[in-house]
Amino acid sequence: MDSSIASRWRELSGEKNWDGLLHPLDLDLRRYIIHYLQRAGAAGDAFNQTKASRGYALSLFPPNEYFSRVGLENGNPYSYKVTNFIYAATDTDEAAYFGYVAVATDEGKAVLGRRDILVAWRGTITQTEWDDDAKILQTSAKELFGTDFAQVHSGFFSIYTGTTPNSPYAKISARDQVRKAVQELVDKYQNEDVSITVTGHSLGAALATLNAMDIAANGWNKPTGNSNKAFMVTAFPAASPRVGNLVFKGIFDGLKDLHLLRIVNSTDPVPKVPFLPGIYTHVGEELGIDTTKSPYLKSNISPHNLEGYEHGIAGVQENGEFKLEEKLDFDNPVINKYSDGLLDEYKIPDNWWTNEKFKNMVQMDDGHWKFADSSYVPDPPSA
Questions:
Q1: In what order do the strands lie in the sheet with 258-265?
Q2: Which residues are catalytic?
Q3: Residues 217/196, Cβ–Cβ less than 8 Å
Q4: Contact at 8 Å (CB) between 96 and 86?
Q5: What is the pLDDT of residues 238-256, one digit of tens each?
């Protein structure tokens, strides 16, 4: 099923900026993007939202159980192991888990064609993060790119570079945590074929954009002491808001080792903000999808829904129609993990990702989710 990915990974990771792969959308690229968006979704799936818990705002699962607990092991050939969690300061006395750094196992390397170093960022969850999203005034990104003329969204920058002495999780910035983790992996695997892939959704997509540029601009994709060897850096941000100004974009355009493909749903408002022409601009290539064309979804599903994005990638067609590619075998029940967006005729519970009993949704050995209805149904009254 995935053998061609191993031989095509450079092309699929954007070595030629996806020339000839987007229109029509290449089948292997569909599979590839869905894989990375699932890894971005995992970062949010593992977030502990129970305020009464001593683990509130941290990962629900330890690194060695992480991918099995978020449903990315059964039937999934892309095997990774988490090496580090990423924490960010979201306030002067507040920190939260924001994602993870992982690396392909030997089994995963065989399927992917190289040793992939993966950085995944989650989207907005807490109120403090919503407040940061709203801080659209720009600030200097000189710390990252060496010039005050590169201006970026101050809320995103603060999450990426901020620290708080009041939390043991964010005494050093998310940026420095990722730098250290990625550099260690680059050094460890420098004699193999290596890639660095950064992914995220929404706020996580903005952080992924900053992070991927930072990695390429500051040489974290190069082994320590060997500046002549640079590994490819690729970003797959989904539903990303704009991040920076035209100088920021100019810096991006000059990074030859970096390739970025933004995935944008046609009616999603988030990629349209901040709407400040001449002040904010997007970077990289764009892949457009339109989930309103899907015959599987309710009309009121949020166009920002990440699983809806994955569904859109599986079904977008060049003629403007929507048809799920059979060879992808896309698992539609995941659409209702955080929504009631799948048509009722498919009989999948809404908002079933509860980290408890999943409303009787059970994962099969092939990775697909099924509804195991164990409800008691009494006999009807006798006539």
A1: 80-91, 94-104, 115-121, 194-201, 232-238, 258-265, 285-289
A2: 202, 268, 304
A3: no
A4: no
A5: 999 999 999 999 999 999 9
